[in-house]
Task: inverse folding
């Protein structure tokens, strides 16, 4: 990708943030075969920000996305907000670590990111409901992280290809 | 479309294998720890609101955040029969019969968890509804 001026860079990050908020809010209404499992389409924009601009921009984009989407949906500081926040925190951290190690393609990073998003949500559920048995749902979330991570990873590769032209 | 390198394949394999191992472990644990006498504990916003004897077939109604949540007990299994929520995930979950398998109704802030009933030293049930 060509070197961007600060203004173009800011514009692109802002557009990624706007699109990620939109996907975050629309996604729950998309039908999916397994109840409670989501594709994580908004994560595509986070990964794009990570590959194009680095860890700081990705963290900013992901946390702003959760904050603004929760505010718009009226669930700020509710259960759904904390689930999203912990999920996004863990998935962002693992993505940064995996990209720094430079061994996996965006598809592998996306699969790892999806799995740790589920782990973050389970940890939040365990804390909120004060029962460790929420971990019963972790295998389902980890298993579903493979197909969802593969799809979002492949889409990330396609978006990156087009943006880097 | 899915061009995976060697490390990607390891990542996919690790997640699939660990989820299957974890699932097997959890299933073994919940089956092994479920006694003959169980109670279902219903909590609203982490506060216990109802204790249900799993031996008694009946319907119960508790108040959730978005409305009433109808709970059904039949043949020592429990489910959320009806609830007001955007996606009805906890009623879709269906029947649960083993201890420690949570039914979570997030929008209603209701959690149902089967526990083994405590039995006093002289053999009498200590907890019935």
Result:
């Amino acid at each position: 990708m060509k070197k961007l001026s600060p203004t173009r860079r800011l514009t692109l990050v802002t557009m990624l943030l706007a699109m990620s908020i939109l996907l975050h809010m629309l996604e729950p209404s998309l039908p999916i075969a397994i109840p409670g499992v989501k594709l994580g389409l908004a994560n595509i924009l986070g990964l794009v920000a990570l590959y194009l601009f680095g860890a700081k921009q990705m963290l900013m984009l992901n946390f702003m996305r959760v904050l603004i989407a929760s505010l718009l949906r009226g669930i700020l500081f509710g259960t759904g907000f904390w689930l999203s926040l912990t999920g996004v925190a863990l998935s962002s951290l693992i993505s940064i670590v995996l990209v720094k190690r430079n061994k996996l393609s965006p598809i592998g990073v996306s699969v790892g990111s999806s799995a740790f998003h589920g782990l973050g949500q389970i940890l939040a559920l365990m804390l909120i409901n004060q029962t460790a048995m929420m971990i019963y749902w972790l295998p389902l979330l980890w298993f579903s992280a493979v197909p969802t991570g593969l799809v979002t990873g492949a889409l990330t590769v396609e978006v990156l290809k087009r943006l880097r032209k | 479309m899915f061009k995976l390198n060697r490390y990607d394949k390891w990542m996919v394999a690790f997640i699939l294998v660990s989820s299957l191992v974890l699932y097997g472990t959890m299933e073994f644990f919940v089956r092994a720890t479920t006694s003959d006498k169980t109670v279902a504990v219903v909590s609203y916003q982490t506060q216990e609101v109802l204790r249900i004897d799993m031996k008694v077939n009946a319907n119960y109604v508790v108040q959730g955040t978005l409305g009433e949540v109808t709970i059904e007990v039949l043949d020592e299994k429990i489910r959320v029969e009806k609830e007001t929520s955007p996606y009805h995930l906890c009623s879709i979950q269906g029947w649960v019969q083993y201890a420690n398998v949570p039914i979570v109704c997030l929008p209603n802030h209701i959690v149902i968890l089967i526990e083994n009933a405590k039995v006093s030293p002289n053999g009498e049930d200590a907890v019935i509804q």
User: Anything to note?
Assistant: The helical segments of chain B are 6-32, 89-92. The first helix of chain B runs from residue 6 to 32. The interface with chain A takes residues 1-5, 7-8, 11-12, 15-16, 18-20, 22-23, 26, 30, 43, 46, 86-87, 89, 92-93, 100-102, 104, 106, 109, 111, 113 of chain B (CB under 8 Å). The mean pLDDT of chain B is 88.
